[in-house]
Design goal:
The N and C termini lie far apart (75 Å). A 5-stranded mixed beta barrel has the order 1-2-3-6-5. It has a two-stranded antiparallel ribbon with strand order 4-7. 34% of the residues are buried. Helices cover 27% and strands 19% of the residues. It contains 5 helices and 9 strands. The longest helix has 28 residues, at 2-29.
Length: 236
């Protein structure tokens, strides 16, 4: 009996070691980009508002987590819009430069992506992502610019800052976001614009009359904010 128990313990131990080996191997299978060196790549796909897959010059697929910013989760308010905007900025086949600053626990390359300009910073400037203060030391040369971009986006009510009570993604992942009534359910807000509070017509309003940009549009759109009928109002 003791022999059978000992064999069972050994078998369980070997299974644990095997599982750990597989996890480590998967993490190591991601090509390691040289830290603080720019690599040329082309976009394969966008995962969400702060993650994408690129192909480097050697033909290897690399998963890139945008450094120093944190976009809303896909099932979080603003998450779908953030992912859509990154897909617009970096469509499939787009040539980019990636400056790797770290490697995360999932084996992803953490980096700053450039397409003529700093894409990480542009997302923050448009209110599509938060500055990730916890990891901002990875971006010493752009930390001040990122903070300024976030302050401007907040003051002008862009993107996620148009929400009545925006919740940081790191708090959302911990379940620490307090439920809030959608703006469209508040008095005097038109239901065609569920994520922001815009009064119904009349009078007719133009994009220059409201502080919000790139907000979701559903239903009749009485003010005609969504001219190209893609579900996003006042895109410029």
């Amino acid at each position: 009996m003791k022999l059978l128990i000992d064999r069972g313990i050994k078998t369980s131990f070997l299974m644990v070691v095997l599982c750990l080996t597989v996890v480590v191997s998967v993490a190591r299978s991601q090509p390691r980009a040289p830290i603080n060196q720019a690599i040329d790549a082309r976009v394969i796909s966008v995962g969400d508002g702060d993650t994408l897959n690129v192909r480097n010059a050697s033909g290897q697929s690399v998963t890139v987590r945008l450094a120093c910013i944190d976009a809303p989760e896909r099932n979080q308010p603003g998450g779908q819009e953030s992912a859509r905007r990154l897909s617009e900025l970096l469509s499939r086949g787009t040539a980019v430069k990636v400056v790797a600053v770290d490697k995360d626990r999932y084996g992803r390359t953490v980096g700053v992506v450039f397409r003529g300009r700093n894409i990480n910073q542009q997302l923050v400037q448009e209110g599509q992502a938060w500055v990730y203060e916890e990891y901002l030391n990875n971006c010493p040369s752009s930390a001040s610019d990122l903070r300024q971009a976030q302050n401007a986006a907040r003051q002008q009510g862009r993107g996620l800052w148009a929400q009545a009570n925006p919740c940081a993604p790191w708090d959302y992942r911990k379940g620490q976001c307090a439920p809030a009534s959608p703006p469209a359910q508040q008095a005097g807000c038109d239901s065609s614009y569920p994520d922001v509070c815009i009064p119904p017509a009349p009078p007719d309003l133009n994009c220059g009359d409201v502080p919000h940009r790139r907000f979701r549009v559903v239903g009749p759109d009485p003010h005609g904010f969504d001219r190209d009928k893609d579900g996003i109002g006042c895109e410029r």
